[in-house]
Design a protein that fits this description.
The chain has 431 residues and is an all-alpha fold. The chain contains 19 helices and 2 strands.
Amino acid sequence: MNNLKTWSIGFQHVLAMYAGAVLVPLIVGGALNLTFEQLTYLVSIDLLTCGIATLLQVWKNKFFGIGLPVMLGCTFTAVGPMIAIGANHGVTAIYGAIIVSGLIIVIISSFFSKLVKYFPPVVTGSVVTIIGLTLIPVAIKDMAGGEGSADFGDPKNLLLSFGVLVFILLLNKYAKGFIKTISILIGLIVGTIVAAFMGLVDFGKVADASWVHGLKPFYFGMPTFNFSAILTMTLVAIVSLIESTGVYLALSDITKTKVSEKDLARGYRSEGIASVIGGVLNSFPYTAYSQNVGLVQLTGVKTKSAIFSAGVILVILGFLPKVAAVTTLIPTAVLGGASLAMFGMVCAYGIKMLGQVDFNQQGNLLVVACSVGLGLGVTVVPDIFKEMPETIRILTESGIVAGSLTAIILNILFNLLPNRKSTVKAEQKAA
């Protein structure tokens, strides 16, 4: 394959994951009320770290890198937890938790490659569904103009947000091929153009942004370490590893490459290293992006060289704040319309994972019912455990943590521990 085609395919991969890559910093930064300058840095450094994380996976060696054509980006499952951690413990606690969770993933990667079978779809599906449900209120508030904004609920905001949502849905219905793949990105661009004609976009800040900047480790300050935040991000990281496993296995099948336990461990280790780098540079934790799997199949280009070029392009974009500044022009309402589709997909993907579960078993029904119910309940009524001791509140102040731990514990109870009937049968057989 010639160099021009390699780089063009790589650019397509960047476009396919670009919307997801920039949505995360825009949503998190907006929720934490970051300044324009801070938000510009967050977007650009996220693109840079996406590129580094991708290159870590492509470069297969004895310690890290799965060696498959996989793209890495910030996981949407981390959005809700990061916003909650930032609101409760400050921005620096987010990065302390990301660094520690990344180190934990590096340490447990070899063991986890053997333990994936103990996280069945009933657990992972419940967790992903909970994460999606906790994210949707963020999108709804953005559709109205952003929580606390002076024009919250203004008909202009609703017209913009629902217009973007409908446009994305129509693209997915009638567009084909690559256009359909980047429907979210196109929706954001068209929505911003419409908003500009409505006088809702200020281009002055882009002109003020510099063309090039350098790396600034711990840009938001030295990390702080909170046990609850670390536990939350570690659970998110483990869920991301399980999601990535599906991506690895799918790419293994597409490229006809056999993936061993050691390969999986190297892949997990890369994600852990990428998250540590993300914490140091004040970006995000990273995971394999499933949207790029479809593009590998669509283009038929299965070589690592195209993904390597995509990683390099992302790194270059990360050093260009002017590009990031353009991204920050997207009005909150436009972002909300696209976010509803993206976050709804997280929830829908969780439901899809639950489709593999045997619900004829009452235990599985109870695992899903109680974990989703508790996770959503704590999210909606966060003060339910406020009178409990600190040691308990650590595990219950996040709906995602409460729901995830419930799913894990109930799965052990109903599916791993022997029940009375099976014990009696075993005793009768032994007799």
